[in-house]
Structures are given as structure tokens and as C-alpha cells.
Write a structure and sequence with these properties.
Elements: H1 2-19, E1 48-49, E2 58-64, H2 76-85, H3 87-90, E3 96-101, E4 106-111, E5 116-121, E6 126-130, E7 141-146, E8 152-156, E9 161-165, E10 171-174, E11 184-190, E12 195-200, E13 205-210, E14 216-220, E15 233-238, E16 244-248, E17 253-257, E18 263-267, E19 280-285, E20 291-295, E21 300-304, E22 310-314, E23 327-332, E24 337-342, E25 347-353
Antiparallel strand pairs: 1-2, 2-25, 3-4, 4-5, 5-6, 7-8, 8-9, 9-10, 11-12, 12-13, 13-14, 15-16, 16-17, 17-18, 19-20, 20-21, 21-22, 23-24, 24-25
Helix pairs in contact: 1-2
Amino acid sequence: MLHQAIMKILVVAAALLLTATPLRAEEAPPAETVPQAKEQTAAAPDLVWPSPPLQPRIRYLGSVANPEDIGRKKGFWRKVWDFIRGEEADEQVARPMAVAVDGRDRLLVADTLRGRVHIFDRRQGEYSHLRGSDMESMRLPIGLAVDGQDNIYVADGELNKIFVFRPDGEFDRMLATTPWLKRPSALAIDRARQRLYVVDTPAHDIKVLDLPSGTIRSVIGSRGVERGQFNFPTFATLDRQGRLVVTDSMNMRIQIFDAEGQLVSVFGKNGDGSGDFSAPKGVALDSEGHVYVADAGFDNIQVFDETGKLLLFWGTSGQDAGEFWLPAGLLIDAQDRIYVADSYNKRVQIFQYLGERDE
């Protein structure tokens, strides 16, 4: 057995050595491109929406599907060892469902098929991941959030638990959710008010937790079709004023609540017309308060004002840049970069909101 293992390593090493193509000095990316390695390459197409001659509002930046997309380079023997262990395949994004960005500009991706959270450190060009605790591995990481200290919260939709990790990736604790949690699907953190919002899909409500203690402060919603009620909510986000925006999936609408849990706005309906929804998923807000909704039925991203007026949409079914295949989670960071968990295309696509600039 030992002899066979040694032979396998030697064969793989020889194959990699023969096929390896060193990067010439003139091809190496400049140091300043490391934080946005793939987004800034010349290979990225110049795509904007809406198309000229209209003023562009959204620009395509690139995508991340594996560590090489952020500039990670592995030595020869590391490649051999990862191939033997099968680790290299696990580093490929397979079914992204939720995304987050921490204070170090690391991109976190909850991957339901791999059962891990990928961590892409774009500044350092390094990759790591979260698996779970020493006692229990994650099975279906589906919800993701980061607090003000870069602690990472992961909701597992199969275990019905919420894992908490320290910024270095070490497991910290498990929230005591057994008495009240049915099945989480999304997380959102209000850093200013120290609250954790947990979307409890089969309970048809949102649990509001005190972040330091993990105890429930309040519950928003109940099952129904009236304003303020939910029918299988799935995704949620917060704006800079602490307003909560929820995808009320089976009611085919978006609901917005203020920081005290009072209903502010409701919009959306099932249909195939302009501004209608087919399968609304991820939701996010930019710095100007526009509401972005990923629709897995239309394979596009729709942008609304808070009253539900459709402002813009982009995307169609496909695998090229700017196209989607069942998009899921959405995130917009402090720089107005838009991250789309393009789930069946096995990647996270990244766009830039350009703002309401005049010609």
C-alpha cells in the first residue's frame, strides 16, 4: 500500500511537472491588483447596464469560483498533495447560497453542496474555509453574516443550528437555538444595535436576537398573506438605518420593516410582467437605498426603490459574464460592489453600482 501511494505521488508529480506553464515576468499581475485579482484583469468583459447610449448604472467586475480567481498561487508540491487528498476540488465553489464580506475585505461564501464556507482573502491572495466544530461538521451552510468584530455566523439548514466562528476561523460556540428554531435560511446582523436577525422559514417569522447573549428579543411576523405576515420567508438584509428587508418568497413580495419592527413598505407580486416576481431569492440594498432582488425564475437581478417602482434589471439565463443560472444570495458591500451567488453556475459574480451620476 505504501509503495502504491508513493508511486501515485510520483506519477501525479511528473504529470504536473510536464503540464505546468510558468508565468513569465511580463505576465505577472502588478501588486496593486491583488485585492481584486480577477475583477481587474483585461479578460473581464466591459459590460454595463443599461446599455449605451443610456447612462450606465451597473458594471460587471468579474467572478470568483476558486482560489486562483483571487490570485492564489500554489507551489508544485502543494499542488501534488492537494490532488492526493482531493482538497483542490473542495476549494471550487459548487453551490453558493449566501455571501458576506468582512472588515478585511475577505469574501465568504456559504456552499451548500460542499458543506463548508469558503473564505477568499483577496488582499493576501489566500484561501481557507470553515467546516464546523470538533464535535460536528456543517451539513447545509445556508445563511451567513459577519459582526463588527469579524466574527462569522453560519446558519445550517439541515442541522437547524447556528455556528459562530472567530475571525481566524476557529470555532467559537453554538447558539442555543434548540427551544425556538425550526429551520434557518438567512441571517442578518445590525451592528449598531447589536441584533441578530434569523429568518426561520417554516415558522414563517423572523427571530430578533440580542447579539451578545443570543437570547430572543422579539419576533416579527406570522403565517399569512396580510401585510406584515409571511409565507415561507427565505432571505433578508439590513440597510444603514437598521431597516430590515425580507424576501417573502411564497407571497412573491418584498417587505420592509423599520428598526423597531414596524412595517414600512410592501411590494411585488407573482407574474411575468415588468417588476413582477417568479422566484424571488436574495435581497440587498445599495448606499442610496435601492432594493436589489435576485429572481431565480427569471435569472436576473431587479432593482427597485423602496415603494416598489422598478428602476432597472439585468441578466438572463446563461453561463457567460452577467448571465445567471438560479441566482440565490445577494450582498452589497460598503463600496457598492454587488455580489451574486450564481448558484448553478458555481460562482459568485461581482458588479459595481456606479451611482446616480449625471452625464
